[in-house]
Amino acid sequence: MPDLTGTPIGQRTLDLAKTADWYRRFRLNETPGQSELYAEWAAGVETDAEVLALIIGLPRPKRQPNLVFACARLLGAPLAGYPVFRLWLVEHWPAIAAEARVRATQTNEPRRLTAIMPVLASIGPSVALIEVGASAGLCLYPDRYSYDYAGRRVDPVDGPSPVLLRTESTGPVPVPEHPPEVVWRAGLDLNPLDVRVPDDVRWLQTLIWPEQVERRRRLDAAMSIVRRDPPLLAAGDAAQGLEALVALAPTGVPLVIVSPAVLVYLAPEQRAAFTTAVTGLGRWISLDAVGVLPQVDALLPQAAEPGDFMVSLDGRPVATCGPHGQTLHWIDA
Ligand SMILES: C[S@@+](CC[C@H](N)C(=O)[O-])C[C@H]1O[C@@H](n2cnc3c(N)ncnc32)[C@H](O)[C@@H]1O
Q1: For residue 261, with 0-12 CB atoms within 10 Å meaning exposed, 13-18 middle and 19 or more buried, which class applies?
Q2: Whose CA is nearest to atom 26 of ligand 1?
Q3: Per-residue model confidence as pLDDT tens digits over 221-274
Q4: Ligand 1: does its nearest atom lie under 6 Å from the Cβ of 181?
Q5: Alpha carbon nearest to ligand 1 atom 3, residue
Q6: ∠ Cα 294 298 301 (to 5°)
Q7: Among the four 141, 225, 316, 318, which has the fewest Cβ within 10 Å?
Q8: Strand partners, 320
Q9: Which domains occur in the chain, in start order?
């Protein structure tokens, strides 16, 4: 029997339960040590039938906790405990829902380069770089940031950068003396963001969780660097748009295609199309959650920790790392 919205009641009950479970898993797996406020909001939503009923009115991918909370904050939600937040959320729901329908989580985290830069350096002293799922392109500038690998520092050839990317590293990380030179850079994204456009900047800032002050500082500093020399960013799909961008790359230096934190958004058949397309176009560095590329996970010498991301070169694992590059464990070859 359908309810008043025409949704069969069995489906609605299932949607409510699945959404509650999504917020519960988000709270348990993603918020610890990251955001007490988001943990409290997620715990509130989990058991709040009225709010869950609003959220399931959104298309399924848009029910994501991170997206709903960021849209609410973008529109001015108070950074207060759940009772105050939920009052505001219910009152402003039509605007929040409209925002969620047109936005996606596009968190741009340059610290992921702590895992990518040594792989790039192992390919050559100079590279041409394409990032798939580039967001605003902040990960296209590995040559403009400084790095700290558990006390071992790496600076650009022309001296220290205002952006220092620190990681807790273990294992034989092949730390180079300097990051490799990027002679050409370009990004591909379904919806490229532009660090010169205030609305895009606000969205990138809002995607950083409330208590993550250091990440927010890093984002702002990286955006200042990128704003001075913005990258070529093309709008397009990972699998279909890649070849056209590759055609623009210079010859004479290795072309490296990086795909950090993007393949998870692709349906399995799109992911397969991408891995086929990328092979033969250039060297390929992936960085995604364990489970996204099971055929590569299978080559890991030991099981990854829950929540780990895996870094691979041309389909072979080289390291595991934290989702934002905050930790890095190099595999002993
Ligand atoms: C979590 S962000 C990662 C951004 C950046 N790579 C980083 O690591 O900081 C994922 C990005 O992938 C983009 N994206 C999602 N699906 C895509 C697709 N099918 N083709 C191209 N880009 C996609 C999103 O728009 C978003 O900007």
Answers
A1: buried
A2: 106
A3: 999 999 999 999 999 999 889 999 999 999 999 999 999 999 999 999 999 999
A4: no
A5: 261
A6: 140
A7: 316
A8: 310, 329
A9: 9-102 (no CATH), 110-330 (3.40.50)
